[in-house]
User: Which sequence fits this backbone?
């Protein structure tokens, strides 16, 4: 015995067809208008193809009694008056013989059963309007040119702090170093996909996944072939937040969100995600002036729950780190062709800098000192670093060491932009940003700094950063052949901003860098554009370290 399991959708359609059969019973033949409407619905829903419908209509017309005087038979209903003319594309049947009606019902049942048994995919189900899917893909070819005149001994603090500590005495092993002298070519991709969901009036949620070589906060790039032949790539939770917008002038966020502040990648990289809570007020004071105020609190480090359990005290106190930010500004349309935007922000980090431990005795490699959790896990390159362990003794006279940020960071940021719209749609834009770390202490940084360990040229620390950018073209690449070009100059002293959170491409990431970026974008199709960039940088102070980076991108979004 063969059994068929019918889906609810199929059962509903079979019931519909059964009702169709009842409605076309000879006793109900006077209700031909209803029958016609049912057939019309079958055509519109795609159950009955248009060409088959046309054939049926031809047969139906052939079976209809000719006009003239006809003696009405017993039980024969009175003729139905002709209906109003149909609109183009509409199918209307005023009379269908019973044999044709039976054929329609039987054909529909047969087709539906065949599709169910054969496993044919049903027609796509419409997604409710409250779900909005989006994503983008970037394919990149990159050449990194590192001259042989660069200093070769730059400590790789990220590798040290993310793994086993480094023996500062150099007795057990050599330290991991950055590559500063060998050219590299890389092929990379960045893929992101997400969904926005309308939860209720004024409440939405967003979830987005992205690629990435590791958990680095700034880069979603995946280097092709890095992990072996054709290995699969990891997907990371890149965005996950709830947004409340009860008024058009107030928005609140909670979760992992995009940058809620108006900054450039001098301070925070464009792809950086902020974990925490933020709110923005954007009142309009006049037709030409709109203000904004953004505030937020973000945990940037949380101590592991069981940190330090190998110590005699079975654990150490928590040393969590936070970022608190506030920014105020406005957008002013000075005239029909001049638009300005400006803002002042203050970004204060607590618990972000490294601390020297109390006197520490190490017996086993797994032993910890009480300030190990103040080491920088993603330190970037350029910030002044200090050793966080005060080691009294360790096996074999070694000094296994971790490193933290030497300076605290309380950053004052000033940002401005002027758009000149004299040649619409081409816009000339002038933009600048200035940042200064108000908590920086030069004397302390010089005293404790260990950057470029083993080299005679220690950097001279500083706390200022600046950027100026000129761009020409269409700001948005909305249609084919839209374009823009830009020239940017950056100057970033060592401890002006956090090296782990700014642009990872300029000087291959970090601070203590200065140089130029020449870039161009060209849309070659809808939602498709190509990008070319040349970044030429060198160090601000200290041992020589120059980098030239050439990038070519293919970008699509959906």
Assistant:
């Amino acid at each position: 015995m063969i059994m068929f399991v019918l889906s609810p959708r199929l059962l509903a359609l079979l019931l519909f067809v059964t009702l169709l059969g009842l409605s076309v019973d000879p006793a109900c033949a006077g209700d031909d208008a209803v029958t016609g409407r049912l057939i019309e619905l079958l055509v519109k829903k795609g159950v009955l193809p248009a060409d088959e419908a046309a054939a049926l209509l031809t047969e139906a017309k052939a079976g209809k009694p000719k006009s003239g005087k006809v003696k009405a038979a017993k039980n024969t209903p009175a003729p139905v008056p002709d209906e109003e003319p149909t609109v183009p594309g509409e199918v209307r049947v005023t009379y269908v013989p019973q044999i044709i009606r039976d054929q329609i019902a039987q054909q529909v049942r047969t087709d539906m059963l065949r599709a169910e048994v054969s496993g044919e995919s049903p027609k796509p189900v419409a997604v409710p309007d409250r779900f909005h899917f989006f994503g983008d893909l970037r394919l990149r070819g990159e050449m990194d040119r590192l001259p042989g005149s660069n200093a070769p001994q730059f400590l790789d603090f990220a590798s040290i702090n993310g793994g086993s500590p480094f023996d500062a005495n150099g007795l057990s092993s050599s330290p991991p170093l950055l590559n500063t002298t060998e050219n590299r070519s890389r092929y990379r991709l960045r893929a992101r996909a997400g969904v926005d969901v309308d939860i209720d009036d004024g409440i939405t949620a967003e979830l987005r996944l992205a690629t990435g070589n590791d958990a680095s906060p700034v880069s979603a790039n995946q280097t092709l072939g890095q992990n072996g032949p054709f290995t699969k790539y990891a997907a990371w939770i890149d965005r996950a937040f709830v947004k409340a917008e009860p008024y058009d002038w107030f928005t609140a966020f909670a979760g992992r969100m995009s940058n809620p502040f108006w900054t450039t990648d001098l301070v925070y990289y464009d792809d950086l995600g902020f974990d925490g809570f933020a709110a923005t007020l954007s009142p309009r004071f006049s037709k030409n002036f709109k203000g904004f105020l953004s505030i937020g609190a973000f945990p940037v480090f949380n101590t592991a729950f069981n940190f330090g359990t190998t110590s005699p005290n079975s654990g150490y106190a928590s040393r969590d780190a936070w970022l608190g930010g506030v920014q105020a500004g406005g957008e002013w349309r000075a005239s029909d062709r001049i638009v300005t935007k400006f803002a002042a922000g203050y970004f204060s980090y607590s618990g972000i800098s490294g601390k020297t431990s109390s006197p520490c005795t190490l017996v086993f490699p797994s032993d910890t000192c009480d300030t190990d959790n103040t080491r920088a896990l993603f330190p970037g390159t350029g910030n002044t670093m200090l050793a966080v362990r005060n080691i009294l003794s360790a096996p074999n006279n070694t000094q296994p060491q971790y490193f933290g940020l030497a300076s605290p960071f309380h950053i004052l940021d000033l940002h401005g932009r002027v758009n000149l719209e004299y040649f619409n749609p081409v816009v000339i834009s002038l933009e600048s940003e200035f940042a200064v770390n108000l908590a920086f202490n030069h004397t302390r940084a010089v005293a404790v700094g260990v950057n470029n360990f083993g080299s005679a040229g220690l950097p001279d620390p500083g706390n200022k950063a600046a950027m100026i950018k000129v761009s020409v073209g269409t700001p948005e690449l909305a249609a084919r052949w839209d374009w823009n070009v830009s020239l940017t100059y950056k100057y970033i002293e060592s401890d002006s901003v956090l090296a782990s959170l700014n642009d990872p491409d300029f000087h291959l990431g970090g601070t203590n860098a200065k140089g130029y970026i020449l870039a161009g974008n060209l849309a070659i199709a809808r939602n498709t554009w190509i990008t070319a960039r040349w970044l030429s940088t060198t160090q601000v102070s200290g041992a020589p370290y120059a980098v030239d980076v050439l990038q070519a991108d293919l970008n699509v979004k959906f």
Observations:
- Residues 134-557 form a domain with the Porin fold (CATH 2.40.160).
